[in-house]
């Protein structure tokens, strides 16, 4: 099997391209457009975004001439324009999912409702789907994966985001034959469960990112979601509800992520967790039962054991995302995807005292944050996955700050695609 760069180069030399359709042109989407257009053997002939001007701007920033950009919300016109060498911009993501020249759809909105809808339409139309939208994946990824398998297409979460980078390290360690003790990521923002878009706005503006996105980083919802995706792919469980999250240097990681009887923090092996102080990297903690392997690890300065850390000090977010699209098309393989029934959930917890009749606002908002727990515990508690919340989710009862939101506490939006898929998923994987 040829390496992916060789395959892409040969494809390019033959005059062929992997055609990528993109849904969502925020900060990550803009990066994807530029990167795809700089790669051999790949093209991005169509983009969907609710604001057409932002999609046009993303293409121009990647070097596309204005005269080569064509705007339409019609599939037939989009196909004709692509065939003539134009770059299509549309407000309708279904045009991306239906257009015949598109081989792979990348979903990059970060919104569970949009992500679920786009993935469903892509799968239905025989397109591989890459989710730079882990928020959707942890909510309905298992059922979308089953649908994609049945349709003969690939469903995958993106390379470059922490879950994909962790899974690549995990796959390496597992293939080599190490025992994998724990997997995780660094968190580079101080933890503040009460963070909201107002308190984060000044910092977000300075960094050029959406205040809700920064809020989800600071209140740790993003970390919980990412490690839920890793849990559902590897079968590893949370170290505890909400995780441990110690402060650490890289040198500390092997000791901290060992069993309590060995002086560490863990009650068991096979867990996901995070650490402050090592961001933006990801890590895998490993050990070996064999003296020869331990001798070699010591010789190559990996430490004296019993645990060792494999560390990748970067993840290139959207810059790597096109590799997942290429891998899906060329090899029919995901970068990271759910292995079956959910192992973990990210459930909603009240950020403040909330009143009956109040609307919830979901990830990165004012009312709730996410906490990881095992899927088994979430089922027993009837806990509500945070990805099911939208602005039509209304409380039926008062909820105290720090209390887990349960299904019977809310009225959900029955018209929501992500909710309908979640109900199918719960029935499909019912024990």
TrEMBL record:
<dbReference type="InterPro" id="IPR005106">
    <property type="entry name" value="Asp/hSer_DH_NAD-bd"/>
</dbReference>
<dbReference type="Pfam" id="PF03447">
    <property type="entry name" value="NAD_binding_3"/>
</dbReference>
<dbReference type="GO" id="GO:0016491">
    <property type="term" value="F:oxidoreductase activity"/>
</dbReference>
<dbReference type="GO" id="GO:0050661">
    <property type="term" value="F:NADP binding"/>
</dbReference>
<dbReference type="InterPro" id="IPR048423">
    <property type="entry name" value="DRL_cat"/>
</dbReference>
<dbReference type="InterPro" id="IPR036291">
    <property type="entry name" value="NAD(P)-bd_dom_sf"/>
</dbReference>
<dbReference type="Pfam" id="PF21135">
    <property type="entry name" value="DRL_cat"/>
</dbReference>
<feature type="domain" description="Aspartate/homoserine dehydrogenase NAD-binding">
    <location>
        <begin position="24"/>
        <end position="136"/>
    </location>
</feature>
<protein>
    <submittedName>
        <fullName>SAF domain protein</fullName>
    </submittedName>
</protein>
<feature type="domain" description="Oxidoreductase DRL-like catalytic">
    <location>
        <begin position="160"/>
        <end position="321"/>
    </location>
</feature>
